[in-house]
Amino acid sequence: MRFDVVSLFPGWVASVADWGITGRARDRGLLSLHGWDPRDYTHDRHRTVDDRPYGGGPGMVMKVDPLRQAIQAARHADPRPARVIYLSPQGRPLDQAGVQRLATLPRVILLAGRYEGIDERLIQLEVDEEWSIGDYVLSGGELAAMVLIDACARLLPGVLGDALSAAQDSFSQGLLDCPHYTRPEVVDGLAVPEVLLSGDHGRITGWRRKQALGRTWERRPDLLAQQELSEADCRLLEE
Ligand code: SAM
Known about the structure:
GO terms for molecular function: tRNA (guanine(37)-N1)-methyltransferase activity. This protein is an alpha/beta fold. It has ten helices and nine strands.
């Protein structure tokens, strides 16, 4: 999957692939990141990318032209069609279903705003989708772009050591994940649940499913309300 990131700090966003799972994805050739600085598409001495808002008010607004040219340059850098995504607090809240769809795309151009945001006409002309990473306001879209890249990268085939680990993550099947334990068996008097030491894979699977259902019910009943529970799930909850 190829990401092109249009940002005043493209190197910062690209650094998301310097570590961990995203780094492994890049090293295996499954993920590539390319930065485009709108300042490189300005024509004045100060490399100006922002201007005062029409109508007055505080802050500055990112101008259309430098962003538009950066997006066009990114589009032409690869023959495959690209979706242009603006990271914005006004976008649709990013969720796992959205990430799953985005991770199937061969190419995405991410647009990170700064200041008070971007001239609305650039969004109308160039942007296909707007996504928010939560109901709070960041200083810029770079961290949001990194969040989106990381969430997509772990779903790319061949990135995770065991493909099942993404499939059992929270939200993948509409539920929160079950609790996890590793050695030692007892920590400050807290023992690993006996079933996990039993070697009985049927019981372990049932226990994990029950924990996932219970946790979701306790912490995110909104998720459970969207689920159609199987008879087996209902039996587990009654046990
Ligand atoms: N005035 C804008 C508003 O209230 O909608 C906020 C501008 S914010 C200071 C600057 C940039 O940060 C935005 O253009 C956007 O790219 C990014 N940003 C801020 N919060 C975000 C969020 N929750 N999700 C995604 N991007 C965000």
